[in-house]
Write a structure and sequence with these properties.
mainly alpha
Length: 305
């Protein structure tokens, strides 16, 4: 989405000079307001703030904290919920401005209230994972994910499915979890395919079906979900549902690891540590364990160092 906004911003600035910088603007802080020439251009169309803001967020200008964040804030103030969402993203990640999870949560709530399903999803995620500076509220997270799922956001359906699977904020219900994963997958969310595949792999909430699990893991992996690649790699490593193929397992683990999947890095580390399918190489194993830990995989962290 941000790429589309960026392209639109460049076209708009070429046609109407909307992206004119204000040389007298303050040097830092979200409270900085767009200069007069920019304000005149965006006054009647707050979405132009978003197109401009993303040009800064995409790295086209160095002072994102001054220009990009203030433009998102202006759009949010003018009633554009996605402006609140974008500003919330910046505060949650600390992108060019001071990291502030509680303010991010407030902005996500504002975006959600304005009809931006992604805001509901992000706020639900913060509440369900007990994020720093945000009070955990699993029941409210369930409500937020349900709202976003009903509004057509497939990743929210998937997040809701995980809560049902684990019994967080709701009674544990594997069948409902599987149904929500199926909905997310059928609506194009690759991680949902991977989560549904794991249900078929283990027989939780559905009848065990290894061939269906393989198809779903493949769909997830091809769709860019590293966990799908990791699960598929494990089936090839163990010869579960497919002939054992250690080289294919290594390729799939590598694909997952390169895509940021910590578990894929951990599995590569174990294969190098044990000499499974590759020559034993403790130095290479340590490198993979570090990558796994950096990606947040707890087992990788256990082996790291």
């Amino acid at each position: 989405m941000h790429t589309l906004w960026f392209m639109a911003g460049l076209m708009l600035s070429t046609l109407v000079g909307c992206a004119t910088r204000n040389s007298d603007a303050p040097s830092s802080g979200v409270s900085a307001q767009p200069g007069p020439s920019t304000t005149e251009a965006i006054l009647d169309d707050p979405t132009r703030c978003l197109r401009l803001g993303d040009t800064y967020k995409a790295g086209q200008e160095s002072d994102y904290d001054l220009e990009g964040a203030s433009l998102f804030e202006h759009a949010c103030t003018m009633g554009e919920p996605i402006g609140c969402l974008c500003l919330g993203d910046a505060f949650e990640a600390g992108t060019g401005i001071t990291k502030d999870p509680p303010r991010a949560a407030t902005l996500y709530a504002q975006a959600c209230k304005g009809g931006e399903a992604n805001g509901c999803d992000k706020l639900g995620r913060m509440m369900s994972t007990y994020g720093p500076g945000v009070a955990g509220d699993p029941q409210n997270a369930v409500s937020l994910f349900t709202q976003a799922c009903d509004e057509g956001d497939p990743k929210s359906c998937n997040h809701l499915g995980r809560l049902h699977e684990r019994g967080i904020g709701v009674p544990k219900d594997p069948k409902q979890a599987a149904a929500l994963f199926d909905k997310a997958c059928s609506e194009g969310f690759a991680e949902g395919c991977g989560d549904l595949g794991l249900m078929y792999r283990t027989g939780k909430g559905v009848t065990e079906d290894l061939q269906k699990a393989i198809r779903l893991f493949t769909q997830a992996c091809d769709g860019g979900a590293p966990r799908g690649c990791t699960h598929l790699g494990r089936m090839h490593k163990d010869g579960t549902g497919v002939p054992q193929d250690l080289q294919q397992a290594i390729r799939l683990y590598t694909q997952a690891c390169d895509a940021g999947g910590g578990a894929g890095c951990t599995n590569l580390g174990l294969m190098h540590k044990n000499g499974t399918g590759v020559p034993k190489d403790l130095e290479q194993a340590a490198s993979f364990f570090k990558r796994a830990c950096d990606a947040g995989d707890p087992i990788g962290c256990m082996h790291n160092g």
